[in-house]
Fold:
Amino acid sequence: MKHRRARTTRDGYDRVGPFHPLVAWAGVALFDLSLVAFVVLTMLVGVDWTEDLIFPGGPELLPF
Structure:
């Protein structure tokens, strides 16, 4: 059984499919940032909804 030579970059990292590892890490970081943004937005909408229940009328915290 022949072993294929490992496909590494010039930096010595293993490739992630056809991509350089930095591209894969950037994709994971972008996914994490979007997940954090979704959680924060959900919390803000919940706070705005709760504020409307307690103090109806008046200025809005969020414009939507």
